Amino acid sequence: ALAIQAKLVGNTKSLQDLNKQAGFEKKPEALVALFRKGCAGKVDTFAALCTGFDDEADRKDLGGLIGDAGLGDAPDAFGALFATGCGGDVVSLKALGKSFSGDTNKGSRDGLKLMLTTGGLAAGKGVLPDGAVQPECLAELLKLGSGPGLAGTSKAGEDKRKGDGLAKLCAGLDATACGNLAKAMKSGGLGTEPEVFGHLVGVGCVGDPAKLAGLSAELGKNAKNLTGLNTLLKQGGFGSTTAVGGATGIDKTCLGKL
Length: 258
What we know:
By secondary structure, this protein is an all-alpha fold. The chain is about 60% helix and about 0% strand.
């Protein structure tokens, strides 16, 4: 805490404003996860993040993710979202907040909350048991769930494409679809394979919420389908690790292409 304070000397207001206007006062675990997981515990990175949110509108957009969208109650998923989904880049996180901001995107914020809770993407906190949904799943959904980008697209353009793509997915999945997704993530084993999951949505479902809902519904029809998916991932080589923990070395887009 003292090290962070020292880095913010002369600009402690940036942390105070972020804490208040982004909603961290009510969700302190999310701020802790942003520092520990999102910034890998690096004081310089965290201080730069705080000062990077120098615009009140950006802080309030982030607050929509923390509050309305439920990320404040999924701290490890939020930390991973910044570290992996946004690549630890403040500009990318601000762009994501903008994709979910305003009255027109209320459905996206509500949908993200459903995906975290009913859909199981909130994952857990700390050290998780074998087979648990990993907090990186949401991050990979942001990073990969809109499919490959076009060559020559600017970074700002890519940030918008990915943020808008995730917002579209969230808005398009209702409680039933999220319930089926949870079955695939948990019983089907997809939650242990964040990158495979991201590519399944981006490549296999081309970022289309209707296709993801349809796929989840088919997989969730019975236990045999879910067991088969788990077996395909763990024994068929479509996951990144085998049933005993070894690396498969298989391209993580394979399941999506299948």
